[in-house]
Write a structure and sequence with these properties.
The chain has about 210 residues and is an all-alpha fold. It contains nine helices and no strands. InterPro entries: TPR-like_helical_dom_sf.
């Protein structure tokens, strides 16, 4: 009995130590991201996926980062495709772990939007419908989540621009999103809390 208790205690200590190390790496990865050191952040996030495969957050951040990289390569189809495929690989893991998580859903919608940018004629119709469905589902799950509101209005703005429509009518929705950011508190320091810079850029265009 004493030996069994000792083994259990050692396993618990080992588990807690691994969790502590994963959290430390996550904190450092997020710090790198905030400093725009995205490649360094990716390395650490991938290390966490290897040691803590049941944690959705590193997969989420990797998908987010690779999708952002893809958007920055707009106009370079092959590079965009490669980055979006990489993002989807990590996204699939996050989807499996958190299928009803609004934060996860909006990154899936961003990936679909990325494919529209790769080839609007090929992917536009189906992906637009799928992305809107996903964003609406995310809004139902977390109507007060500022990133959900922001991604939804930015998608609407992008769609309106594509069809040559006026986008000034969306400025009020952006202001509401700003109010949501003002009161939002992430579950922990490791949970998603980004989007304010994107919102500021969108609001600035409303004042041009």
């Amino acid at each position: 009995m004493t030996r069994l208790i000792t083994i259990i205690a050692l396993l618990i200590v080992k588990l807690l130590s691994a969790q502590s190390m994963s959290e430390s790496k996550m904190e450092k990865a997020l710090s790198f991201w905030q400093q725009s050191k995205n490649e360094e952040a990716k390395v650490l996030f991938e290390e966490v996926t290897e040691s803590d495969a049941g944690n959705w957050l590193p997969y989420y951040y990797l998908s987010l980062l690779y999708t952002a990289d893809a958007f920055e390569q707009r106009g370079n189809q092959e590079t965009m495709k490669r980055l979006l495929e990489t993002a989807q690989g990590f996204q699939d893991k996050a989807n499996n772990l958190q299928p009803e998580n609004a934060e996860v859903l909006i990154i899936q919608a961003r990936i679909l939007t990325g494919w529209i940018l790769v080839d609007p004629m090929l992917y536009g119709r189906q992906n637009s419908a799928d992305a809107m469905y996903i964003l609406n589902k995310a809004a139902e799950l977390e109507p007060e989540n500022p990133r959900v509101a922001l991604e939804k209005v930015l998608f609407d703005i992008g769609k309106a621009k594509y069809f040559g429509q006026d986008v000034q009518g969306f400025c009020g929705e952006l202001q509401r999103t700003k109010e949501l950011f003002a009161t939002f508190k992430p579950e922990t320091a490791l949970h998603p809390d980004w989007g304010r810079e994107k919102l500021a850029e969108a609001l600035a265009k409303c004042n041009e």
